[in-house]
Amino acid sequence: MDKLLETLLETRRLTEEQWRELLARRDSLDRAELFDLARAERQRWFGNRVYIRGLIEWTNVCKNNCYYCGLRRDNHRVRRYRLTKEQILACCEAGYRWGFRTFVLQGGEDPGLSPEAVAETVAAITARYPDCAVTLSLGEWEETVYRLWYEAGARRYLLRHETADEGHYRRLHPPELSLRHRMDCLYTLKNLGYQVGAGFMVGSPGQTDETLAKDFCLLQELQPEMVGIGPFLPQHDTPFGREKPGTLEDTLVFLALIRLTLPPVLLPATTALATLDPRGRSLGMEAGANVVMPNLSPPSVRESYALYDGKAATGAEAAEHLADLRAQLAGLEIAIDRGDAPTKQP
């Protein structure tokens, strides 16, 4: 076995220099062995269980102008929308019938979506479905807002850090956004008691082995309960519209390395991965992933949530077609429960 992989298995961490070395020669790793190790860790912590999350894309309005995102403020070609509380509750009602016990409310940083309105919607969901978990993914807010949402019943929060390298962060984001504030938000969320999700895009413009090493060191330090990674995919109406997408091969290797670094982590095989390759969902599972997030949003708005070009939103990506998803996950069991991150070693 690769010596650095042995070290990772023994200690669950590498130094930044070791990460750079391992990542620099990732193409020469025995991928079959790596994926076997990742699946063994997943099996040890979760058995054959895969967790489903019902994704509800609340709003595609965003005040930010990130260079990679199709929802950026200056993209005037996207048709903007914002779901009402009643529409979201209708999505939850359908999802609950289909077996979802976690709802992920995702959106841009929408100035028209008040913190109080979010809290009211979260409270309505948790009152109606007390056996369900609510996950929020609504960007950067202050501690008072995160506390308000926690008190309303939200228990998980997804906030990809995107990159742990200051120079790389500056290449991806406009000057008014800062890596320090993003990090402050992640640690604030943890301190408030949320199960926290971080993550990054694979192959984003400017990403190097050095920046990736910092990403893995951050994950070691933060110890998030969830990690969301997926390939960078360009959106044609952004400054990065002509950049090359991230690769399937790198995404799968990084999924496996995250599983070895954080064995009990909840690790999605993302929609972006399934968009890049029709086999992406099942290949992600072979690399150690254990979460899928089919789309519960109203079909009429799914194409408008255009983070990147060609987003998969039908077939196994659509919540109403769980049979297609089960067919992709042959040999794995779709768990009908909240799917909280484990806190004790099995």
TrEMBL record:
Superkingdom is: Bacteria
- Chain sites annotated for binding [4Fe-4S] cluster: C62, C66, C69
The entry marks the following residues as binding (3R)-3-methyl-D-ornithine, namely: S137
- What is any one GO biological process for this UniProt entry? water-soluble vitamin biosynthetic process
Query: Keywords for this entry?
Result: 4Fe-4S, Iron, Iron-sulfur, Metal-binding, S-adenosyl-L-methionine
Q: How is the cofactor bound?
A: Binds 1 [4Fe-4S] cluster. The cluster is coordinated with 3 cysteines and an exchangeable S-adenosyl-L-methionine.
| Binding of S-adenosyl-L-methionine, residues | E162, R182, L233
What SUPFAM superfamilies does the database record attribute to this sequence? Radical SAM enzymes
InterPro entries the record matches: Aldolase_TIM (IPR013785), BATS_dom (IPR010722), Elp3/MiaA/NifB-like_rSAM (IPR006638), FeFe-hyd_HydE_rSAM (IPR024021), HydE/PylB-like (IPR034422), rSAM (IPR007197), rSAM_sf (IPR058240)
Q: Which Pfam families match?
A: Radical_SAM
List required co-factors. [4Fe-4S] cluster; [2Fe-2S] cluster
Nucleotide-binding found in the keyword field: no
The UniProt GO MF terms for this protein read: 4 iron, 4 sulfur cluster binding; metal ion binding; transferase activity
Residue ranges annotated for the Radical SAM core domain, each copy included: 44-273
Q: Which residues form a coiled coil?
A: none
Q: Which CDD domains match?
A: Radical_SAM
Question: Can you name this protein?
Answer: [FeFe] hydrogenase H-cluster radical SAM maturase HydE
